[in-house]
Each structure stands twice: as C-alpha cells, then as structure tokens.
Amino acid sequence: MPATRIGEVVQASTQELIAQCYELHQPPPFASLVRTREGETDIFAVVYHAETGPLEPGRRPVARGREETEEEGVYRAHPQLSRLLRTEFRAWIVGHRVEGKLVQALSPRPPKLHSFVFLAKTEEIGEFGSSLQFLGPLATAPLPPREELISAFLLHLAGSREDRGEFLLRAGKELTLLLRGEVPRLQSLLRRLS
Amino acid sequence: MKVRLEEGVSVEAVGVGRYVTIEGEQSRFFGLITDVELGALERGLELDVSDPYIARVLSGTGVFGTIKVLPQLALGVVGLEAPPPARTIPAPFSLVREASEQDMALVFGSEDERHFYIGSPLDLEVKVCLDLDRFIQRSAGIFGKTGTGKTMLTRLLLAGILQRGQASSLVFDMHSEYGWEGEREEGGVVKGLKQLFPSRVAVFTLDEESARRRRVKTDFTVLIGYDEIEPEDIALLRETLNLTDLAAQAPYRLARHLGKGWLESFLGYSPAQVRDLAGQLGENEATLLSLHRRLEQLKRLPFLVPHSPESAVERILGYLEKGLTVVLEFGRYRDIVPYMLVANLLSRRIHDQYVQRSERARGEGAPHPRPLVISIEEAHRFLSPELSRQTIFGTIAREMRKSYVTLLVIDQRPSGIDEEVMSQVGSKITCLLDNEKDIDSVLAGVSERTELRKVLSRLESRQQALVFGYALPVPVVVRVRDYTSIYKKPVGPKRVEEDRKDIWEE
Fold first, then answer.
1. Contact between chains at B45 and A183 (C-beta distance less than 8 A)
2. Angle CA(B310)–CA(B312)–CA(B314) in degrees, nearest 5?
C-alpha cells in the first residue's frame, strides 16, 4: 500500500516542521507519526498542533452562512473560500532513518521546504515503537500540550504493535525513571496510559 | 555492598542468611545476604497503585528490591585447599546469582575424617561441615536462649568429636543429659553418648542413687575429699555463697595455718573455736564466723567426704588418656554451688597434669597428650569478669591450646562472660539470642558484626543456629541436623578405628 501523502513542508527547522495540508480541514490526527525526506534521510515527526486559517494573516474570514440551511452550503455558495483558507500542522521531529537505520534523534539537517509529507505506515509506526529513546527529549520538549502529546503518541504507537500491553508497560517504566521528582506529571501520564 | 534485584525477582524470594555468588570482572565472589530492603526511586512516591497498570509500572522501577551482600570469599582461586577470604569487592554492575549447590559444597566442604556435618544452610540441601581439627584447637562456645536447642547441639558436637576422634572430652553434665539418654524438648528421648559409643564413653556420677533410679550404668562414683578442696575453690564460690571479699580471702590464711585438712578441721569447729581461731590469725571474728556459716552448706553434699578412697582425678585422667570421653553426671546436685566446686576442682587438677605432660612433650620429645575438650554449662558463672582470672577455666580459655586443653562453653547469657575470654573463643555456634547485650558479646571482635547481628536476631527459635569462627570459612546459618541421624553411622572413618586400637591395646 503506498503511503498517504498529506501535504508539504512550508517551514522547517532542525526541531520541527510546519506543513500545509493538500486538503482543507484534513490535517493528520494529533500525535500521529508523519514522515518527510531530506536528501537520503527520512525524517519522522510527531504532529502536535494543527490549525486552519486565512492564507493572509491579516484577513480573518467573516461569517457567511446566515442564509444557508447547512454548513456545506457556505462553501458551495462561495467556492473561492477553499482558495483563501488553508490547513497547516506542526510536527516535532523525533527521529530519522539514515542508510536504513532508524535513529531516534533530531535530523542532521532540517527537511527542505516543499518536501512531501506522508502519514507513516503501520509497519513504520510499529518499528518506531521498538525503542523508547524518543521519550527523553520529548518529555522535556517545549511543547504546550506535552503530557497529552506523550500519552497520545504512546497509544498511537501501541496501536500498531502486537505487544500492546507489554509496550505500554515498558513505556510506563521508562517514564517513571525519566520523571523522577515530578510525581504529579507522572501520575497524570500513567493514568492516561492505563 | 548493595545489590539491586532484577525486575521480576521478588523480594520475597530472597532471604537474609542465604548465599550468593557474584561474577566480578576478574574473579567470582561468595557472599552472604545480610539485609533485604525495598528501595524507592524517590521519597514519597505516592501514586495511585490501586490501578493495576500503575502498580505494574512501578514495581521494579519506582519501587524495587535491594539486598545487602557481604562478599566473603573469593572462589575459583586455583591451588588452595579452601577458598581465601575476599580481599576486595566485585566491580559495579556485577551479576549476582543465588549460590549453587556446587558452590556451597566448595565452601563448606564435605564430610570426611576431619569435617563433621552439623546442618544445612537455610533452603538448601547442602551439608555444612565443621572442621573439627580446628574446632578443638581453640575454645568454642555454644550460645542461645533457654529452649533454643543448645543441649542438642552440644550432644551432636560431642558425638562428632567422638566419632572423628580428634580429642577426648570431659563433660560436666549439670542436668545429666549427655551421658546416658536425654529428653527432647518436643518429647521423647534421644540416645546419649554412652548408648551410642558404649566402649568409648565413661559415665561418672556424683549421685549414685539418681543414676540407679534412672537405670544408668555408671563407671565410677565420684567422691571428693575435703582435703582436696583448696582455698581458691572457695574463692570461686564467692558470689554464689555470697561471701565478702575478706571472707573469700580468709581460706588462704586458714589453709596456711591448718594445713591440708583445713576445710574439714574448720568445719568441725564450734563457733567458740572459730572465735579463738580468729584471735590467733588476727582475722575479724564476724568475717570468720560468717565464712564458717556459709561453708556449712558444703556439709550437706554427700559426695564430699573427709578423704576419698580413690582419687577421681586419677580415674578421669586414666580414661582420658585412653582416648575415652568422660561424662560426669551431677544427678540431683543441680545447684550451682556443687557444680562450680566440682568442675573447678577437677579441671584444675587435670589441667595441671596436662601442663606437665605438654611441657615434658616439648622438653623431652615425649608424645603430646591427647587433646582434651572440657565442656561446662552455665559458663558465665565461671567466666565472669570478676572470676575469670581466678578460675582455671579463665586460664584455659586464655592460653588457647598450649597445654592441649580447650573449653566448650555452653551458656545462655554470654554477656556475663569476660570479654577477654570471649575474644579467645575460636568457634561460636549461637542459637537465637534476643538480649542486646548478649548479641553484642557474642559478636564482639567479628568484622561483619552489624550484618551478623541482623542475621542473628532473625533466627528461628529452634533448630537454627549461626555458626562462625575458626572452624568454618564463613559465618553460616544452619538448620541443625537431626541428632538421631547420627545413630546410623556410629563409627566414623579410619581415624576412629586406629583410636580404638589404641584404647584396647593397653
């Protein structure tokens, strides 16, 4: 099955990328694993933010549906709207594959702009879960919904693994070691995973 | 040394007193578990463990088991008879395993002509064997609260020494339980030494009637002449007879004044005569009168006679020379006064003889006397700090094996024994003790004191003992072997056969 292409990179750094979706209102789910490419390197990132807004930052859309009976009618009556709006998502880089080897670390170079972004395939997700090294950097990453992201990402990885329970147990233990001294954070994370 | 348990190993599966081997980088170590603890990653890790997932996550990470291990021996050193003590500790992150039976056998030896099987380590079917050659070379002690199995252990060891034939024994048997038969705490009787080794044990008694009632075949009835009692025998009884310092010193002057039969003459005096004597000797009248009154107790002891027809000392020495073990039963005289008096008096004479003989052996190349082990009960009475310098037992304990006599002390209150004497006790076998002072005194001078203290206080109240010292490479907790198992092999290996020849060739 070919990988699903969902958009392309419109802004990138070594830590994260911003991509625009080809389909309005169709961003990848929160905490899903996406893949893009820089030269010979596959770069993996986890989606932590998505938003839809105007193409031009200053021009906020106005309400247009007063006369319509259903929401879809707004877009039918104003076909230019889908050209003036866009859906973007941000993903935090958690690993890369170089010469066939998966490394859970930042990529040496950021992805090029306009690189295609794909949803990771089930086997890629499963493979990514075979190591938990990404948890350390992710647990300290300056991302606002961090606990939410970690737990959702772990559940996302677990869903593609045959050893689901075992995987979550391993992850829980890893978190216990990582989050020493942060009992409330650990508690909330473990509750989400249980 | 702290060892973290691997995930999946329950703290409940390991126990204090058990053995482990540690795979160091260069050598293997043999060590003892001295403590089991739960460790937590941080204090106050209070998570909701009612959630089974959280509980599983935390076990082994947030909360984990640790054990403390004391490395004791280095295993696998080639060319040595026994594993040497560990002089270093294993590198960090060395793998720790439960000791295998082979390792245990390597450390605790196997039964042979000098090694006597006394029990098994907890949870393992391995024999722990005491090196009896070493055991008798220095004084040894058996300690434990009342009812923890001291008597059974003593009987076992005496039987072992008899079986292997390292030494002759002289047993001062206060409660008449070693020679013929003894009672088990849990009911029933067990065979005594004479029943097991009829030709190699002589039972002496102070109380023929009691022996007759119990249908014990005795070899000799001990009578002690007043003329055999010396002033220092009385000095020893100072505390038990409640004598003042002055009263305890008076016998020396009495003996000088009245000669060999001083005690008989003195006891024959009327109060008026005692007063006269006090005048002649310049003693305080009241002191001498009170001494007279206190010593009158001795008249109630029927085994004390003016002059004994046959010297008990000579008889005992005769038997000991032939390699026999002599058990002296006290019958109904279970009181501490006759026990101390007789034990001290006989031991002093016998020790004198051994000293002379060993000196002769050194000087003239005559054969060494056969080693002798003297067993005494209630040892703290003889070896208290006040008395240990005066009694012969203090001397024996201190001089070690110079004259081929050592002690086997049996006591429930080791803290009452002089520290200096305790430090000379080579091998110690201790059952449960719960008094802090007693524990301290038994463990004094042992390098692994803090660790062993924990082990000692966790012994079961019966049939378990901590054995350490000169006759074993490492301290070990044993389930004491069943005494009746010794019945099956009444005669040990070769050495005993040779001894038997010695006995009967005369």
1. yes
2. 85
- Chain B residues in contact with A180 (beta carbon < 8 A): 41-42
DSSP H helical ranges for B237-308: 245-258, 262-268, 271-281, 285-295
Cα angle B267, B379, B160; round to 5: 120
Q: Cα separation of B185 and B189, whole Å?
A: 9
Q: How many CB atoms lie within 10 A of CB B165?
A: 24
Percent of chain A with pLDDT over 70: 99
Q: Which amino acid is at B25?
A: E
Q: What share of chain A is helix, strand, coil (3-state, %, to 5)?
A: 30, 30, 40
Q: Please count the residue pairs, one from chain A and one from chain B, whose beta carbons lie less than 8 angstroms apart.
A: 43
Dihedral sign, Cα of residue A67, residue A70, residue A74, residue A79: negative
Structure tokens at B278: 């006090």
Are B220 and B327 in contact by the 8 Å Cβ rule? The answer is no
DSSP string, B423-446: HH--EEEE-----HHHHHHHHTT-
Query: pTM, whole model, 2 decimals?
Result: 0.68
For residue range B317-357, what is the model confidence (pLDDT) as tens digits? 888 888 888 999 888 888 888 888 888 888 888 888 888 88
Q: Phi and psi at residue B125, in whole multiples of 5°?
A: -95, 65
Q: Is the ipTM of this complex over 0.90?
A: no
pLDDT tens digits for range B446-501: 877 887 888 788 888 888 899 888 888 888 888 888 877 777 654 444 444 444 33
Instruction: Tell me if B53 and A186 make a contact (CB, 8 A cut-off).
Output: no
What distance, in Å, lies between the first and last C-alpha atoms of chain A? 32
| Interval B75-95: pLDDT, tens | 876 655 667 788 888 888 888
Amino acid in position B56:
R
The whole-angstrom distance between A194's CA and the closest CA on chain B is: 6
- Nearest-CB residue to B57 (from A169, A180, A181): A169
**pLDDT tens by residue, A92-111:** 999 999 998 999 999 899 99
CB contact under 8 A, A172 and B62: no
Q: What is the DSSP letter of B445?
A: T
Model confidence at B34, pLDDT cuts 50, 70, 90, reads confident
